[in-house]
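#onboarding

Welcome to the new folks! Below is a worked example of what a typical request in this channel looks like: someone posts a single protein sequence, and someone else replies with the predicted structure as tokens. Don't worry about understanding the tokens yet, we'll cover that in week two.

Example request:
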Amino acid sequence: MVMAVAALVVLQHDLDNLIRTDTLNSYFDKSLRLYFSIYQSSFFVFKFNINMKRQYYLCLFVIVLSFFGCRTNNKNIETFIGTSTDICKEDVYLSDIINVKSIIPLETKTESLIGDCKKILKFADKYYISFNRNALVVFNEQGEFIRAIGKIGNGPGEYTSISDFSVTKDGIFINVNRQILQYTHDGEFLRSIPLDINLIGLDVVEDRILGYVTLDEHVSHILDMKGESLNSHHPSSKAVWIGTSSYYWPYGTDKYFTPLGSGNDVLVYDIKKDEYSYSKFVDLPDMLTLDEENKLIEKYGNSVMLKQYARIVWPVNANSTHMFFGTQRNDNDDVLWIKDVKSNADRAFLFEHIINDVSFTSVKSFFSAFTKSQNSFIAYIYPEDLKQAVSETIKTDSPFYEQMKTLADNLTTEDNIILIEYEIN
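Example response:
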């Protein structure tokens, strides 16, 4: 409403100036229809009936015909977790927070050996993993290597690196340089979707592509399945270039969110309403904001230690039922926040008081994996890290100790990673 009023004031002033010119007087003896474009492709149609001989004042009749494209709802900025959530400051076992579904050592083959793991996604009963500059690999729920999707190269259906990927019922979508390659679930190359922008993150949802872009005017882009832009949103900045994540996370069944920078600001997209809104992770006074982060980067450079100035958000993950994120500034008061999206129930734990009795590694590293699954979460651990963690752990009553010790004894540092699939209790 404020924007519309402001637009009317400006338009009134411009028309008054135009009316004073002889050249345009004849135009104002007739009905004049003006189409005025308001911010983010929201259009208002103004119809002016002006008779210069009879009227001294300009009459404005505003008729809102329609809104085209995507709109932003800024009336109420939702906070995922409020100040009423009590933070547990007592020791708690990780196995009391999560329910481990399966522990899966992945089969070790030359073509499937995971190096620097970038992203793990579970779809149906398969795990899809991208890493280093290698092809996307697929494993089943027993950890057996199934196939690679595409291969490294420059030919049709080939790529030199993967910036992100998504899997749906319609196939596998791999984002490479200014194109998305689509494959069947069996790995057959179907087509290339050309892009006018260079995505660094994507999620294919229903009939559209959610794209994350840094070197563009806007960060979030919604594309159709031909790669053509439907709308874009939120101005780009240095903070969102180097921020927490370039991924979209599900928030319930109809919404997806992406962090804006390393702090508290979140962009939310409602796929059913085709509408954007803004949210915040948590209602705390010392949380880093996007504006503050941009100012710090401008002053101190990209390598600025943001935690020295405010509380940042890391890690982040979510599925259709739960979300969790960490807030970090000082090690002794870093917090893990968990929200049940369906019931709106919240919990919070001090990281330093969570005892990892599952993988026996760092709790923060356990939750920090870039993984996506519809109804569960996935952590992973390298054999060398497991061996060290178990060797430094005094035998406990944990139901996972013997299983992890056996794995550590039987695996070598040359073997593949171990997946841990779990749910939030």
